[in-house]
Design goal:
Helix content is 58%, strand content 1%. By secondary structure, it is an all-alpha fold. The chain has one domain. Strands 1-2 form a two-stranded antiparallel sheet. The longest helix is centred in the middle third of the chain and has 46 residues. The chain is globular, with a radius of gyration of 21 Å. 44% of the residues are buried. The model has no long low-confidence stretch (mean pLDDT 94). Its main location: membrane. It is a multi-pass membrane protein. One of its GO terms (biological process) is lipid metabolic process. This is Alkane 1-monooxygenase.
Length: 382
């Protein structure tokens, strides 16, 4: 881990770069009012401008003091706390507006909601992820509300109860396998993720002597919130509004799972025998220290430390050097674009996987079971 430490991060100037996501909201309003191709400004800002800034600003190896008190992180936390109402207005305000005006073609509306899906996927999911990891009920509730706007509420269970426990093992659906294309991965996650989350919650309830249908099963909350969002879209915009809402949710989920694919592609924990796996280490997540994309994604790219210390708030996440964690050549906006072209992705990433294996696990001669997800299931039940 790099030991270069930044000053205390509590002041507004230190937090300001992490607010760059807010610029996307007036771009949504501009695209709705102007119509045409103005929606393209949203992905251009979120994906391409960030990539250009990464190339200009480079990487940062500085780490904040991980013992900083949460009270000193007010301005960092604030952007995640206000995001739900902002995203809610962007989605449902746009549904009402475009279905009550006549200056946009149907393709213009689809373009706009593609852009909104980029907003709710690139930013909303990342902020929900940060909020769901916190201990306060208010933050976790905001995280649930954000997930309901993209119809992916089970992510809370799948991420907290499954992914963090079993990343890099065959029990974790969102650990992308070596040579697995994004498209095969995407289908596998859409198929297996909700089932895995349901099993995790029902196992948790069973340990407390409760049935799967007990009121404490959060799937009741997930269903209620998502149905409420669907009903609101239908009320505000009719069937067209409902279609646009579901479309932006799909784009958001596509963005999330692209990110999940990049974060752990090909990285597996060593099977120790009898269904036991080594403890999670920084080497089991891809790390990226690119400045601008970490500002936009509130340090999500310091993913090695997030899995190593999942209770750390985003301003305090540490970055690691190549001796401790594998390094992505570019930030997430570029890497997710590359992931959509499997031959190009494999050309870029597979040599890095082979080097990672040789560096950390030279004793493993046959990687075939790891490549296919056929190593034994972890023995500890969910």
């Amino acid at each position: 881990m790099n030991d270069s430490v930044t000053p205390r991060p509590g002041k507004l100037p230190a937090a300001a770069p992490f607010w760059m996501s807010v610029v996307m909201l007036p771009l949504v309003a501009l695209a709705a009012i102007k119509g045409g191709l103005w929606w393209a400004l949203i992905p251009l800002y979120g994906w391409y401008l960030t990539t250009v800034l990464d190339s200009l600003l480079g990487e940062s190896a500085q780490n904040a003091d991980p013992h900083t008190d949460v009270a000193d992180l007010f301005w960092h936390r604030a952007v995640t706390l206000i995001w739900f109402p902002l995203q809610f207005i962007a989605i449902f305000g746009s549904i009402w507006y475009v279905t009550h005006t006549d200056h946009m073609t149907i393709w213009g509306k689809i373009g706009l909601f593609f852009g909104i899906g980029v907003l709710s996927g690139t930013i909303g999911f990342v902020y929900a992820h940060e909020l769901l990891h916190q201990k306060t009920k208010y933050e976790r509730w905001l995280g649930d509300l954000l997930l309901s706007t993209v119809l992916y509420s089970h992510f809370r269970t799948e991420h907290l109860l499954v992914h963090h426990s079993w990343v890099g093992t065959p029990r974790d659906a969102v650990s992308a396998r070596y040579n697995e294309s994004f498209y095969a991965f995407f289908w596998r996650v859409l198929r297996d993720g909700p089932v895995s989350a349901w099993h995790a919650e029902t196992a948790r309830l069973a340990r407390a002597g409760r049935s799967p249908w007990h009121r404490r099963n959060p799937f009741w909350l997930y269903a209620t919130l998502q149905l409420a969002m669907l009903a609101l879209a239908l009320i505000l915009g009719g069937w067209q509004g409902l279609f646009l809402f579901v479309f932006q949710a799909f784009i958001a989920v596509w963005q999330l799972e692209l990110t999940n694919y990049v974060e752990h592609y090909g990285l597996t924990r060593k099977h120790l025998g009898n269904g036991r796996y080594e403890h999670i280490l920084p080497r089991h997540s891809w790390n990226a220290s690119h400045k601008a994309s970490n500002w936009l994604l509130i340090n999500l790219q310091r993913h090695s430390d997030h899995h190593y210390k999942p209770d750390r708030r985003f301003p305090l996440l540490q970055t690691y050097g190549e001796d401790d964690a594998p390094q992505l050549p570019y930030g997430y906006p570029t890497m997710t674009f590359v992931a959509m072209a499997p031959p190009l992705w494999r050309r870029r990433m597979n040599p890095r996987i082979r080097a990672w294996r040789q560096k950390f696990y030279p004793e493993i001669a046959d990687w075939t079971p790891y490549n296919t997800g056929d190593t034994p299931m972890p023995r500890r039940a969910l």
